[in-house]
Specification:
Helix content is 26%, strand content 19%. It has 206 residues and is an alpha+beta fold. It has a single domain, classed as Zn peptidases (Aminopeptidase, 3-Layer(aba) Sandwich), CATH 3.40.630. A 7-stranded mixed β-sheet has the order 1-2-6-3-7-8-9, covered by helices on one side. The radius of gyration is 17 Å and the shape is flat. The N and C termini lie far apart (40 Å).
């Protein structure tokens, strides 16, 4: 099953290259925002930033309350009859302790030797922000997405995902999905998954 036409990708890649520095600066700004679920630091603020960002792309975006921190949920139905892809991630991060192990402050991102050092850069803010920028780039180049997309970003992955998200009957978010991306990987309806490694085996302190 081909979801994205290869013929339309060169224009998107050129757009990404042309906006590389602006995208990088936006990512660094996002990484400056703490969202530590274990301590309740910055969670509401970052969730609101994501809802505004996804809503600004024309997606139906909002917060789903839970007994803990809310889930950010957005849907773009640009392609009736086309497959629906679910992009899963989480906007919470681990506490940055021990602070003395960091070369640079965890929420003051730095680029060194082509790598970004900040809490959340590799797990999972970098990944889902890149996916959101990909949606933005596709829309900028083609005006619509080649498939339907659901973005689900939870706020408690780093504390064990204790809450279950429930959507009411009839909600558009209850529709079947054709594929799932998770931490940079891909899962098809038959359950097979090709996950790209996103965590560097070296120490995580920047």
């Amino acid at each position: 099953m081909t979801i994205v036409s290869q013929a339309g990708l060169p224009e998107v890649f050129s757009y990404v290259d042309a906006h590389r520095q602006a995208f990088l600066e936006r990512l660094l700004d996002y990484l400056r925002r703490p969202s530590i679920s274990a301590h309740g630091v910055g969670m509401a603020e970052v969730a609101d930033v994501l809802v505004a960002l996804l809503g600004g792309l024309g997606m139906d975006a909002g917060l789903v309350p839970t007994a803990g921190w809310p889930v950010v949920l957005a849907r773009g139905d640009d392609a009736p009859g086309a497959p629906t892809v679910l992009l899963y991630g989480h906007y919470d991060v681990q506490p940055p302790d021990p602070l003395e192990a960091w070369v640079s402050p965890p929420f003051e991102p730095q680029v060194r030797d082509g790598r970004i050092y900040a809490r959340g850069a590799g797990d999972n803010k970098g990944q889902h922000f890149a996916q959101i920028l990909a949606i933005e780039s596709l829309l900028a180049c083609h005006g619509r997405l080649p498939c339907n997309v659901i973005v689900l970003l939870e706020g408690e992955e780093e504390v064990g995902s204790p809450q279950r998200v429930r959507c009411p009957a009839g909600s558009p978010f209850r529709r079947p999905v054709s594929g799932l991306t998770c931490r940079g990987g891909w899962s098809s309806p038959d359950g097979s998954c090709a996950e790209s490694p996103t965590r560097d085996p070296r120490p995580n302190h920047g």
